[in-house]
Amino acid sequence: MASEEPGSTAPAPGAPPPARATPPTLLDLSTYLLSRTGRAARSRLAERLARRGLRLWDMAVLAALADFGPHAQRDLVRRLGVDASDMAKVADQLAHAGYVERVRDAADRRRLSVTVTDAGRALLAELRAEALAVQEEVLAPLSGAERRVLHELLARIHAELPGTP
Question: pLDDT tens, 87-108?
Fold first, then answer.
């Protein structure tokens, strides 16, 4: 029988598990582990963005505009899967801060076109650096090769999820 390492916090044989121990039934579920890991990563990134007075939706809107070009505001709603009233608030705040520009379509006055500004692109680069720092923290236990494999597997799963853009 292997002896415990000095300073180990493992319970003695027969002792009850620590109060915060995760049930093994849950640890056997990859979906549970994905959920917990995702929640921790999202929380860390949200905290970093909040220090700048921003939210994850702000970053998502900037990324969509930078990656895909100008959008009608209602098309951003569909692309990102966000409620239309929430999108209006995000776009208003980003426009007020100078990160996006919103212009009424001359052909359809109800339609607002949203475009990322140079300031928005610069902000997105900073936010991406924040996201990569969080990613580094969360994935620290993995080697570079393991991180690449994990990313490839998650990208495959993501691509097959129903309703995923």
Answer: 999 999 999 999 999 998 777 7
CA angle 55, 56, 57 (to 5 degrees): 90
**Number of residues that make up the chain:** 165
Tokens of 76: 């951003």
Is the separation of the CB atoms in 91 and 100 below 8 Å? yes
- Dump pLDDT digits (tens) for 30-88: 999 999 999 999 999 999 999 999 999 999 999 999 999 999 999 999 999 999 999 99
DSSP 8-state code for residue 52: T
Helices (H), 69-165: 73-80, 84-96, 118-138, 144-160
Cα dihedral 101→105→110→112 (10° resolution)? -20
